[in-house]
Amino acid sequence: MATFKAIVIDKAADGQSVRLTDFDEKDLMDGDVTVAVEYSTVNYKDGLALTGKAPVVRRFPMIAGVDFAGTVESSSHPAWKAGDKVVLNGWGLGETHLGAYAGKARVKGDWLVRLPASMSAREAMAIGTAGYTAMLAVMALERSGITPARGPVIVTGAAGGVGSVAVALLAKLGYAVTASTGRPAEAAYLKGLGAAEVVERKELSGQPRPLAKERWAGGIDAVGSTTLANVLSMTRYGGAVAACGLAGGMDLPATVAPFILRAVSLIGIDSVMCPLPLRQEAWGRLESDLDRAKIAAMTSEIELADVVDAARRIVQGQVRGRIVVKIR
Ligand code: NDP
Predict the structure, then answer these.
(1) Ligand 1 close to Cβ of residue 131 (< 6 A)
(2) How far is the CA of 75 from the centre of ligand 1 (A)?
């Protein structure tokens, strides 16, 4: 019997329970590639899943964890062989398919991206789904013609995972970044990542007006709700905003005024079902365009036994930067 440690979520009559347990390899789900998981990470969605705050998990028992990096142990998929270094984000991992907080994962080879040559498994998970989503958002702004010459860009939820990587990426690419945070004590941290200006979250949390003073050419929003509505109302003519999160709420109390009077675009970002070519491009760009020393400085490392506590902290907005989980 081959077993490994795993964090398993069970459903009970009075809610869900979470346990760190020995999991038998024979109970993994079908897939054509088995991966020895080396690192995972704690994303906001992992926090929602482990605390049960949102119905992320749709199969029980479930091994939690939405992303991992590791080494292929065995494969019947033509693209992969034993020893290949891989990274996986989303595709229902930790939601409908047994997830990443485990010594092994069995997945579809079509879900995997080759780990960039110069990146370690730990570095990939320091970036994690949060950082890969930030990269998708930056690429979306670029496709909309938002170049550094167009003016400043705003990042909301800036001290969180998506926000921190977005600030670092945009700054390295030459954008003047305005970082919005509810934690003014993190201003020095955000400037260290490359933010040109730090604004307080409350500037973007008042009742949104249809149109407000034009402030930025574009934005990456991890917060949603009133914050996104305010960001849109303050976006300059022809600008674009990439919406990727809901840390402040799922609603959007906005009007169409920015779209029809200022030709502002609102771009949706999804990392989970994102097509493979876009993922490969994003990981390639993360290899070339991200200052990994900055990511290393904002990353803390925990073990499987600490994941539940980290999950609680991330949904309370208490995590700065990124957390990696050492699996083996
Ligand atoms: P974090 O918890 O690390 O960051 C979220 C940040 O949002 C917090 O650090 C805080 O930033 C800010 N925030 C939290 N609560 C509130 C609030 N009530 N009002 C305003 N701001 C708030 O999470 P991640 O960075 O991992 O994820 C951010 C969001 O992106 C989440 O909603 C997540 O679900 C989503 N996401 C979406 C993906 C996709 O595919 N679309 C993929 C990955 C994440 P500060 O303290 O600086 O204000």
Answers:
(1) no
(2) 35
Cα of 152 vs its chain's centroid, Å: 23
Beta bridge partners of 7: 20
How far does the centroid of ligand 1 lie from the alpha carbon of residue 312, in Å?
14
Taking a C-beta distance cutoff of 8 angstroms, is the pair 175, 242 a contact? no
Ligand 1 atom nearest 271 alpha carbon: 40
Contact status, residue 212 vs residue 230, Cβ threshold 8 Å: yes
Q: What is the CATH number of the domain that holds 175?
A: 3.40.50.720
Indicate whether residue 227 lines ligand 1 (CB < 6 A). yes
Q: Domain containing 36: what range?
A: 3-115+298-326
Pair (50, 166) in one structural domain: no
Domain shared by 79 and 155, yes or no: no
**What CATH number should be reported for the domain holding residue 45?**
3.90.180.10
Question: Is the CB–ligand 1 distance for residue 248 below 6 Å?
Answer: yes
- Ligand 1 lined by 89 (C-beta under 6 Å): no
Q: Which residues contact 67 (CB under 8 A, 6 or more apart)?
A: 40, 41, 43, 87, 88, 89, 90, 93, 100, 125, 128, 129, 132
Question: Strand pairing partners for 72?
Answer: 35
Q: Specify the ligand 1 atom closest to the Cα of 314.
A: 2
Which of 42, 44, 186 best tests ligand 1's pocket when mutated (most atoms within 8 Å of CB)? Answer: 44
pLDDT along the chain (328 residues), means of 10: 93 90 97 98 96 94 98 98 98 98 98 98 96 98 98 96 96 98 95 97 96 98 98 98 96 98 98 97 97 92 97 92 93
Distance CA 154, CA 148 (A): 12
Closest C-alpha to 300, from 273, 287, 318, 278: 318
